[in-house]
Automatic annotation (TrEMBL), chains A, B:
Protein name: Transcriptional regulator
Source lineage: Bacteria, Bacillati, Actinomycetota, Actinomycetes, Kitasatosporales
InterPro entries tied to this protein: ATPase_NBD, ROK, ROK_cs, WH-like_DNA-bd_sf, WH_DNA-bd_sf
Entry similarity comment: Belongs to the ROK (NagC/XylR) family.
Protein source organism: Streptomyces inusitatus
PANTHER family: BIFUNCTIONAL UDP-N-ACETYLGLUCOSAMINE 2-EPIMERASE_N-ACETYLMANNOSAMINE KINASE, ROK (REPRESSOR, ORF, KINASE) FAMILY
Record-linked SUPFAM superfamilies: Actin-like ATPase domain, Winged helix' DNA-binding domain
Signal peptide stretch: none
Superkingdom in the source lineage: Bacteria
């Protein structure tokens, strides 16, 4: 298409490039799709407010998206007390049959695969335990089998796969590259990999205890002590991919040597084995000490990071107030007034599913070009994602 | 302007809105300006690579920018060994006479004002001490006077002002709002305010010891112990604006009470008064202890944040290796292998000017709509900046 301005000038566009108007319309469409993708279901009025598009422009865009099956409409539940007065308002949402995302958590003792649709509904979830001595090849084979099951035998409408791995995951982690290759070749979609505890931090921040927060710290008290930091809504990975290792901050700088090389690391006092050695999860004093020292380490971290929320997860979080009360007391006694004032401390909500749900959240957050928004156009050059390890 | 497509359809654009082509061209212009603004001077080839624009499109855009005086050309120094062979390559840069940015550091004991031009050259810098008992009104009056002097009597071509304040600076800090009002009304440009130690962290990350890094930690050992975190190239502020308070991370959890309410905070061992009480800056043991405990606290922080660089500033950094060697030894002994592997530790480069230079860096980084790119167009609605405290 050649554009001619009203004054007669011919504005040539190179044949292979889209016209300016097409580009602008694409941008607006992508905005609408991105909002529905992030927020689930919205009314036309809400979409108008959030995009700033005129009613006419928005109506043309939503009309086209509905026509192409990318967006569907559903009547909203009537507001209380309106009882039939006024027209029912239609909500727009992404077609649940497209825009699927998969999350796979390859944990130490089990694999979990979860698939959600574009409307953010979980449409399948399976988990299978394996013995700790299971090889990497066997683990990934089980994961692929499980994902096939949850996907229902096909990768139609699949946007991407997020994978959580136990242990450190950085740009140079071999298992990460192997997973990207394996899953990317099998399903032909972008694959993003991260540490599964860090992904649980993201899942809690997006869907769980921290929904609506921008800055949160997740600490997981389990066989080891790990965690994840969400800064300004995004996962902090660090220079080598090791960010979040709260377990190796010293709780007692003169304490015993830790396997990491440090001294008196939090993991030596607040992990499951440490609490079991000190009396077990039923022993109030052992749990109290774990909570207190976790609170102490978190105080230092909070004074530097100034988060709005601490989410405590892992088996120890199951001790409830016996753990959380001393943790919170110690944290509040040691944190700066400005820092503790707005700070909330809570147990995790998503439990065992956090890693897989966080893997999905990672794909939805970092995969920059959702296929469903691209669908009616020729494929864009390159499918670069911003995650740590990626294939297209 | 009404656009008519080649097939005769009239594509109406609302009168008050710019056309799609204008919008697209603005986006491309803004890209070019933003690249030159961030990177200083670039060849046309380099601009083409970085923007992805065709040679024709780029030439039309740079031609217009040069015509409007936004961009100027200058021959690049000939490469070694080419001695006159080939055409000399012109570099494009922003016109140094426009796009000025001011940084003001309202410190405890002195004010500093620095002005840089669009080519990132410092074109003026002044500082003036004041007694510690000087009132807020007097301090700001001195700052305004100093800034007038450095600006050379006019705010022509001024893009914005960054202001560094001592003490905690968050969204609710009254002094910050007062400074925004005062400087905003006087100069009629966007004003961004942040804590001056945090701004020094940004300055070191952008122009100083950390130039080229994405993740760095700045620690300032002075009358107090403070710092700043740069995560993915941006300053971390935290939920209440308190992020970076490294001085109140415990170095000895069972140590004496600190004024902050905590126990055994780093500031009790590694601040200037603490070292002076323990023997002074000339006393090797006192300096060594400060370095060692700073390294210990940084190890915990690094294990969670995984930065690539630690920058040490403040009066104690002047002790050089007597401080840095024990700091680095302790840090490396306690940090996780993955974390310490890529980690570099160095003294600050910008010294006393860090706060003011960081204030400029903040304006260049966070002020989203540089005036010089907007110049030929009607003023955009709103001048919202993303900094913590802002006025237009
Ligand atoms: Zn350790
Ligand atoms: Zn303190």
């Amino acid at each position: 298409m050649t554009l001619i301005s009203a004054d007669g000038t011919i504005l040539r566009m190179p044949r292979s490039e889209p016209t300016a108007l097409t580009l602008l319309r694409r941008t607006h469409e992508a905005q609408v799709v991105e909002l529905l993708r992030r927020l689930g279901a919205l009314s036309r009025a809400e979409l108008g407010r959030r995009t700033g598009l005129s009613r006419t422009a928005l109506s043309s865009i939503t009309g086209s998206l509905i026509g192409r099956g990318v967006v569907v409409t559903a009547p909203a539940a009537p507001a209380r007390g309106t009882r039939g007065r006024g027209r029912p308002v239609d909500l727009l949402r992404l077609n649940p049959a497209i825009g699927r995302c998969a999350g796979v958590d390859l944990g130490r003792g089990r694999v979990r695969a979860v698939v959600s649709n574009a409307a953010h509904e979980i449409i399948g979830s399976e988990s299978r335990p394996y013995p700790r001595r299971t090889s990497w090849e066997e683990r990934t084979a089980i994961a692929l089998e499980l994902l096939d099951t949850v996907l229902g035998g096909g990768s139609d409408g699949l946007e991407g796969i997020g994978i959580g791995l136990y242990g450190p995951v950085g740009p140079a982690t071999e298992r990460a590259s192997a997973a990207v290759r394996l899953f990317g070749e099998r399903y032909g979609v972008p694959v993003l990999v991260d540490n599964n505890t860090r992904l649980a931090a993201l899942a809690e921040a997006v869907h769980g205890a921290g929904a609506g927060t921008r800055h949160s710290v997740y600490v997981r008290l389990s066989h080891g002590v790990g965690g994840g930091l969400v800064v300004d809504g995004r996962l902090l990975r660090g220079a080598s991919g090791a960010a979040g290792e709260i377990g190796h901050v010293p709780a007692d700088p003169r304490g015993p040597r830790c396997h990491c090389g440090g001294r008196g690391c939090l993991e030596l006092y607040a992990s499951l084995p440490a609490v079991e050695a000190a009396g077990g999860l039923g022993d109030d004093a052992a749990v109290e000490r774990a909570g207190r020292l976790t609170g102490q380490v978190l105080a230092g971290l909070c004074n530097t990071l100034d988060p709005e929320l601490i989410v405590v997860g892992g088996e120890l979080a199951g001790c409830g107030e016996r753990l959380l009360a001393p943790l919170e007391a110690e944290l509040r006694a040691r944190a700066l007034p400005a820092v503790r004032q707005g700070l909330r401390i809570t147990a995790e909500r998503l439990g065992d599913s956090g890693g897989a749900l966080g893997a999905i959240a990672l794909v939805r957050q970092e995969s920059p070009a959702p296929r469903l928004a691209r669908q009616p156009y020729p494929a864009a050059a390159g499918t670069g994602c911003t995650g740590p390890v990626v294939s297209g």
